[in-house]
Design goal:
The chain is an alpha+beta fold. The protein has 14 helices and 19 strands. Strands 8, 9, 10, 11, 12 and 13 form a 6-stranded antiparallel beta sheet that branches. A 6-stranded mixed beta sheet has the order 14-16-15-17-18-19, sandwiched between helices. A hairpin with a 4-residue loop joins strand 8 and strand 9. The longest helix is centred in the first third of the chain and has 27 residues. The chain starts with a helix and ends with a helix. It binds guanosine-5'-diphosphate and manganese (II) ion. The site of guanosine-5'-diphosphate (GDP) has 19 residues, from strand 2, strand 4 and strand 11. Manganese (II) ion binds next to loops.
Amino acid sequence: MASPVAIAAQAGKLLRERALRPRLLAVRSQAGHFTPRRWLNLQEYQSKKLMSEHGVRVQRFFVASTAKEALEAAKRLNAKEIVLKAQILAGGRGKGVFDSGLKGGVHLTKDPQVVGQLAQQMIGYNLATKQTPKEGVKVNKVMVAEALDISRETYLAILMDRSHNGPVIVGSPQGGVDIEEVAASSPELIFKEQIDIFEGIKDSQAQRMAENLGFLGSLKNQAADQIKKLYHLFLKIDATQVEVNPFGETPEGQVVCFDAKINFDDNAEFRQKDIFAMDDKSENEPIENEAARYDLKYIGLDGNIACFVNGAGLAMATCDIIFLNGGKPANFLDLGGGVKEAQVYQAFKLLTSDPKVEAILVNIFGGIVNCAIIANGITKACRELELKVPLVVRLEGTNVQEAQNILKSSGLPITPAVDLEDAAKKAVASVAKK
Ligand code: GDP
Ligand code: MN
């Protein structure tokens, strides 16, 4: 049995993450930053592996990390035609452009040699699509799959929908293309089935969706069967969204998932260990990964005041108050509940590794955290890292008196602050002076 304190700490962590995520992302987009990804996302090939394990029909494929591997995979597939697909987490790859000059992140060819040549121009290069930052995202892997002819492309997605308090299946016979455009120009071509999570998907619902998508004859049963299997997968893996575009049909009469995008409920990590272990962090900023290694949450912003905080509320308040006082945060580092001295040291190391940082503001409320531990971590980090930028510290809560004594008697040039307002003012002033 976990202790009540551990349970409370865990609950606090979940609440913090939930609250922190959307608001910080909003702040970040206000600050002109694009966040391609912060939470578990799988590449197409990983999603398709899960799908195929659950009876969902996908094409045969291999994954390659070099052009040579891609060529070998193409030969091994021994297919009439091959489709080569760059693996990045953003969509719109088909119409994307590489900084190698190559156009298109999805290519069809009958010649394995061409697969090798194309892969050469994909791997190691950035692919820019409508959904990536301007400079694109580096391609580390390609998927080499057996191409199938497509006679019709439809759209299918299953998502956890807040307004319905449960899963909804969304489909359109107009697939392949940007679904937002379809929704805007022909909303009558978007169909929805609301699923009762306790009753599960009904045959009649799967059939009706298959029909709305335009599958006829025996294809209708096949499509309904695939929809049910996708729904079961969705539930079993704690997905928040499974999107298949195109959900297509072949001239031979098969319903196939040609593309796949799965999003997960990050709070389900504890029961989806195998899936979370597949997490490909290569598209994260390196500093985010480094922070995650020490159980710290890092969010980069574009100002010059580094913020070292604990908790979502405090993070947002700190951000707001810095703005109000005419400053701009450079980043956030959020400490968890059970902080250790070593973590504080790592946190400082990360914060100061950002060349934009001209001052550091520590704003920690010791509820679960003991302020003295933070104070010891701070003084140790200051000495060992030979901190060059002004440091303003506001500590409050458990054992704060001892913490203040530690800071004061350290002889280090640390500026204490009595409250958040005071801390923000001092941090902004220290940057302005420069
Ligand atoms: P996205 O552009 O990132 O969404 O990548 P997709 O996997 O959806 O591929 C883009 C487009 O390439 C699809 O909409 C299809 O039209 C086409 N495509 C993908 N795989 C195949 C295939 O096996 N055969 C054929 N004929 N077209 C394919
Ligand atoms: Mn697609």
